[in-house]
Amino acid sequence: MRNQNTNILKATIKDIIVAFICIAIIFFTIYIVWGSEISLAISLVNKISIDTSKKVLEEVKLNSVTNKLESYPEYGTKYGTIKIDAINADLPLYYGDTLAILRNGVGQFSGGYFPGEGGTVVCMAHNSTKYLRELAKVTPGNKIIITTNYGEFTYEVFDTTIVPQTEMEALKIQNEEEMLVLYTCYPFNSIGHTTSRYITYSKLVDSKYF
Length: 210
Prior knowledge:
CATH topology of the largest domain: Sortase, Chain: A
Radius of gyration: 23 Å
Strand order of the largest sheet: 3-4-5-6-9-10-8-7
Structural class: alpha+beta
Helix content: 10-25%
Strand content: 25-35%
CATH superfamily of the largest domain: Sortase
Number of domains: 2
Shape: elongated
Low-confidence stretches: 36-57
Distance between the termini: 89 Å
Number of helices: 2
């Protein structure tokens, strides 16, 4: 009887191991085929609820004397677009950088400046094929254009780098000259959480005010 119980136990353990291996193979296959989509879906789980679809920026003006906006977009509002011809990207630009906002397009870090204010504009987006998966193809000399309802701002890329996600100094926030810092998660083909960021640095080369 004891031997019979032992054999049953061994068979059960064997079945569990086989089932575990089969499940692991299935999950691995799913990640290989739909890894980027699953990763994006997981990363977008966010407790902060922002309904960007109902927010419309009515009017924002730049004060030419103070070089500051006279009014600012509501957090979570789409207030412009960002265009990168080098990778055929024409994306909506939102004020804010929560995961809920990044689900809809490019987000702007609230700790930086707005286009036209003469400081560092910090923007980011997911590295999915829908957004900035091809950012590494943007090289020095390429142009990035931000268009808002108060002006169009053209930036020229002068440098790129890869840094740990914790290296906040890489954002280079300052108000001595206008520049655009645009980044995304790195590596581009990673599954799940990434610990590095791919960054492009651009300087303002042209501006047109509406």
